[in-house]
């Protein structure tokens, strides 16, 4: 299903980019996804309901998403007609990935033993931007007591580990090699 979601996301992304409307669509889609995320189960039930024909599902999408951008509304109608309304979150995640890639942004998870302050996160963000050449980093701080001290940063598939736990593991490897 991830491939299907990516196809919808790519079509929306390309159409929005061509119309010079990408930021507006991104903002609206983010709001819609937040609003419907708790209703995904109901949308999946609608997709699977054999009593609802294509016309009824499209009318439902038109009513529910009437106040959205035309590009979004059109995509929701296509999702409804193909019984894929329950995939809105997956489509959003794929669209979000494309949007971030286009804008040279990425998410980073900063693991630490305690919650970091905004100033500390800002400093870490600056270092990540220098190291990765990204324009913007969206940071999330997660608490991980197993680190003992220091931090571990994950950006995409890259991991920067400056934790005491990692230092001890490296020291243990050196001792094993020595004996």
From TrEMBL:
Pfam families in UniProt: OSCP
InterPro entries (alphabetical): ATP_synth_OSCP/delta_N_sf, ATPase_OSCP/d_CS, ATPase_OSCP/dsu
Subcellular location: Cell membrane; Membrane
GO molecular function: proton-transporting ATP synthase activity, rotational mechanism
GO cellular component: plasma membrane; proton-transporting ATP synthase complex
The entry's keywords: ATP synthesis, Cell membrane, CF(1), Hydrogen ion transport, Ion transport, Membrane, Transport
Membrane topology: Peripheral membrane protein
Gene3D superfamilies: N-terminal domain of the delta subunit of the F1F0-ATP synthase
Main location (coarse class): membrane
Assigned protein family: Belongs to the ATPase delta chain family.
Protein name (database record): ATP synthase subunit delta
């Amino acid at each position: 299903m991830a491939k299907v979601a990516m196809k919808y996301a790519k079509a929306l992304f390309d159409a929005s980019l061509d119309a010079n409307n990408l930021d507006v669509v991104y903002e609206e889609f983010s709001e819609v996804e937040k609003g419907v995320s708790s209703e995904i189960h109901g949308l999946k039930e609608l997709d699977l309901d054999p009593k609802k024909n294509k016309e009824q599902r499209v009318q439902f999408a038109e009513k529910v998403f009437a106040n959205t951008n035309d590009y979004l509304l059109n995509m929701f109608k296509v999702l409804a007609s193909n019984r894929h309304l329950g995939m809105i979150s997956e489509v959003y995640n794929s669209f979000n990935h494309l949007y971030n890639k286009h804008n040279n942004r990425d998410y980073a998870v900063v693991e630490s033993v305690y919650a970091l302050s905004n100033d500390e996160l800002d400093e870490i963000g600056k270092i990540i931007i220098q190291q990765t050449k990204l324009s913007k980093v969206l940071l999330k701080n997660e608490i991980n007591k197993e680190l003992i001290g220091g931090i571990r940063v994950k950006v995409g598939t890259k991991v920067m580990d400056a934790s005491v736990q990692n230092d001890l593991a490296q020291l243990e490897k050196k001792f094993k090699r020595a004996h």
